């Protein structure tokens, strides 16, 4: 098997498109009140602000063109879920669990994903500046052409996390090992790490990035 293919997150598993049932905001509220798992639903164009959807469970669900501004999904469970062109800016996913998830062309500026478990997750063409992933567990996570500028990935446990064309300017990796991460085609200016730079051990960068990181190590590169 292609070693690159092995690194890719597993895709969500869905029922046939014809089996999906439309859902709306009222249905979400009723499921939370009844503590029912949401299954095989498609939510399109739902708009919510400041709503509490904490502790909810979703399986085999699709969200399209939905806007959840400053809503709480804390301690929620998401399995086999697609978020397509959705906005989760300011939302709280603290202490949640996500597995086989795709965020496609989504916005999550300032979203809180602290203490979350993220397994087989893809962020593609997304805008997640200022998002907070502190103390989270990331396994088989793929971040493609996605902005995480000024974000926090502090004290995270990472396994097979890949970046491609990502924006990581002024992002904090304090106490998070970057070993094996290829950042060679991502923007990494102003990364925050420990004083001894131990997080950078084993990271993969290009020549110009290496020169920038060398400043953190107190190395002066003399022009030829």
Structure description:
By secondary structure, the protein is mainly β. The chain has helices spanning 3-7, 25-34, 207-216; strands at 21-23, 38-39, 41-44, 47-49, 57-64, 67-69, 77-84, 97-104, 117-124, 137-144, 157-164. The chain has one domain (42-216): E3 ubiquitin-protein ligase SopA (Pectate Lyase C-like). The longest helix has 10 residues, at 25-34. It is elongated. The model has no long low-confidence stretch (mean pLDDT 94).
Shape: elongated
How far from one another are the termini?
Answer: 44 Å
Mean pLDDT: 94
Order of helices and strands: HEHEEEEEEEEEEH
Characterize the main sheet: 9 strands, parallel
Radius of gyration: 19 Å
Structural class: mainly beta
- Can you identify the CATH class? Mainly Beta
CATH architecture: 3 Solenoid
The CATH homologous superfamily is termed E3 ubiquitin-protein ligase SopA
* β-sheet strand percentage: 25-35%
The total of beta strands comes to 11
Number of domains: 1
State the CATH topology.
Pectate Lyase C-like
Q: Report the helical percentage.
A: 10-25%
Please report the number of helical segments.
3
Unreliable segments (pLDDT under 50, ≥5 consecutive)? none
Give me the oligomer status.
single chain
């Amino acid at each position: 098997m292609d070693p690159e293919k092995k690194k890719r997150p597993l895709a969500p598993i869905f029922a046939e498109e014809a089996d999906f049932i439309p859902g709306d905001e009222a249905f979400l509220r009723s499921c939370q009140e009844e503590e029912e798992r949401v299954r095989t639903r498609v939510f399109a164009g739902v708009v919510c602000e400041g709503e509490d959807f904490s502790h909810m469970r979703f399986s085999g669900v699709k969200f399209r063109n939905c806007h959840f501004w400053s809503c709480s999904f804390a301690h929620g469970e998401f399995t086999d879920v697609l978020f397509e062109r959705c906005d989760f800016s300011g939302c709280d996913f603290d202490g949640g669990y996500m597995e086989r998830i795709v965020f496609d062309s989504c916005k999550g500026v300032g979203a809180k994903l602290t203490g979350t478990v993220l397994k087989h997750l893809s962020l593609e063409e997304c805008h997640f500046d200022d998002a907070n992933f502190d103390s989270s567990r990331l396994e088989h996570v793929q971040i493609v052409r996605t902005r995480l500028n000024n974000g926090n990935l502090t004290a995270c446990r990472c396994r097979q996390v890949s970046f491609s064309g990502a924006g990581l300017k002024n992002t904090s990796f304090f106490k998070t090992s970057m070993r094996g991460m290829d950042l060679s085609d991502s923007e990494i200016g102003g990364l925050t790490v420990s004083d001894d730079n131990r997080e950078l051990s084993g990271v993969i960068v290009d020549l110009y990035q290496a020169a920038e990181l060398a400043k953190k190590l107190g190395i002066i590169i003399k022009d030829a």
